[in-house]
Fold this sequence. Notes:
The structure is a single chain. By secondary structure, this protein is α+β, with helices and mostly antiparallel strands. The chain contains 21 helices and 32 strands. It has a 6-stranded antiparallel sheet. Strands 18, 19, 20, 21, 24 and 25 form a 6-stranded mixed sheet that branches. The chain is rod-shaped and about 160 Å long.
Amino acid sequence: xxxxxxxxxxxxxxxxxxxxxxxxxxxxxxxxxxxxxxxxxxxxxxxxxxxxxxxxxxxxxxxxxxxxxxxxxxxxxxxxxxxxxxxxxxxxxxxxxxxxxxxxxxxxxxxxxxxxxxxxxxxxxxxxxxxxxxxxxxxxxxxxxxxxxxxxxxxxxxxxxxxxxxxxxxxxxxxxxxxxxxxxxxxxxxxxxxxxxxxxxxxxxxxxxxxxxxxxxxxxxxxxxxxxxxxxxxxxxxxxxxxxxxxxxxxxxxxxxxxxxxxxxxxxxxxxxxxxxxxxxxxxxxxxxxxxxxxxxxxxxxxxxxxxxxxxxxxxxxxxxxxxxxxxxxxxxxxxxxxxxxxxxxxxxxxxxxxxxxxxxxxxxxxxxxxxxxxxxxxxxxxxxxxxxxxxxxxxxxxxxxxxxxxxxxxxxxxxxxxxxxxxxxxxxxxxxxxxxxxxxxxxxxxxxxxxxxxxxxxxxxxxxxxxxxxxxxxxxxxxxxxxxxxxxxxxxxxxxxxxxxxxxxxxxxxxxxxxxxxxxxxxxxxxxxxxxxxxxxxxxxxxxxxxxxxxxxxxxxxxxxxxxxxxxxxxxxxxxxxxxxxxxxxxxxxxxxxxxxxxxxxxxxxxxxxxxxxxxxxxxxxxxxxxxxxxxxxxxxxxxxxxxxxxxxxxxxxxxxxxxxxxxxxxxxxxxxxxxxxxxxxxxxxxxxxxxxxxxxxxxxxxxxxxxxxxxxxxxxxxxxxxxxxxxxxxxxxxxxxxxxxxxxxxxxxxxxxxxxxxxxxxxxxxxxxxxxxxxxxxxxxxxxxxxxxxxxxxxx
Length: 798
């Protein structure tokens, strides 16, 4: 016999009175199913009865005395006995039936010494698995009760083998979801299909230890009347996987934005719900504005801004303070301690936690959310504090361990680097925006013939766009709008340079196309200077280009002459609802060395017309299906209202203005120049023309009630300019006086000679004309046209 323990013990009436673990594995019956039943139901009764020979030995070689006492003196019998399992299927097993001498009539059924037949290897396999595998090994019956376990299973479930037998497997393993656990195993019984890789959460034996996880595989036994289950604990494997996933998620998702608040939101989205149930990020308020972060330890009075919050359970959205709230941290608390020594901490939360009294609102939120564990880590870089990360877990058994602290420190460091990049960008953008704001003109003052209403919507990475409007001699107005490639401080400084060049060139009274050609030369020189920078300089790799539209409005002729350098042309709206975009020959971008020359176009401007100059980022076209209205066109169809109302209407109609460049719009409404403030005379080319010009000027200045001092200076200027036209120019000669915010005197002739300012010596009899004019006026210049030239002066009026 293979052992001293019988498979079963049968009394004199043939009823099973004792059932062994080995028998449970062979017959797949539990103790309750076997004890008290007739032993013959465990074997093939026809073979047992009909196979008995006259010699008292069965055909299988087993002793077969009809009664208990008749077999008491026989030798043990052995031979193949046909046995049925619980499904009625034969199991070929060699056994011996031996009478027991324990004071009662009983028979013991033992396994024969020569071992099982080849068809009964099932029990041998069970023995090998039970003794040698490191996995938890269970054999279950059809009711999912434990028939057999190995030592690894007892260790996993923290239970003794005897106490595990004949109990439901869910009671032994204590899964957190027992119904789901049993449904999986019953599915194996019912369908006869194996299950592998199913992860089950096991409750802690004492209710307070960390939770554990096991990977389960289940295989059906013959005719699905039992289940073999193997389980391997994977708690640390899953925790390691969770940490690696958290690190990977943070590295992938955090830092994609150069905005401090957005970076904080990226962090909580990467950690919840995988690594934590609740995540909160507080940032030093100065960091949000781009200022330098304070050094640790953080002062008690330094405020932090609640930058991001996420709760993995929407039903429990309790938070102490809303996102955007600014306040100092309470002290002493783990939060303040973390920002003092810059070391992460894991803290258990319960009703008796003493430091919660320092912040009642935070304590209320923690209790309402059900948080039981907290990990808080500093967002610090090179000893400077940028913020604080707080992570919470609801399950009391899901504790933060030392590995979690290490991971939290690593992901906090990564986030701190991203926050510092965003802070530096915010700092640079703030400087660039301030520089642009100071370089851009204030709202241009309305003039006699034109009024303005600018619109500026800054972008996150702008500062390269500009507009300008300034007066020119002869009641004219120059308007410009453009944008420089790139962003930030470099774009803002380049924009300021180009705006200065435009003012300088406009003082020469150049036509718009010629002004853009000179401006292009300036941009080419700036691009050459940038290309000559050392290769390590970031600007060395950034090509320089710019687009611009320059226009000059002349109210006395009722036209606006404009030219474009790679920039969209303005929109023109006339009273009555007509809106159109003039066809301007678009020249190359500024900074181009080759390309067609710039060209101009003249657009008639009526009294009350509106000129709208915009940057390329301004949305004016409809969507591909016509579903997006044109905010500019719709607002400009109703001009019978103040220009500022038109501007605001356009702003309210804008939808998506996100982009790399600012959205700029300059609205200019033209007016008719008062005819009584302009006087023009045609002068004969005779020696008395200067005297006649002085007479006309004296009369008109008297009508305009100009002071005597200004009138005297104007008569002298008129006399000198007309004399020069008679001497060096060609007829026809014309004199024009314009009274606006300044007094303009213009003398035109058909000559092409270019006068120049001379400094005559004491003995010279001439050469003082332009010098006198320059001294008597605050500005003067020469304007050329196809008909000749015009020399003009401007004088200030009290």
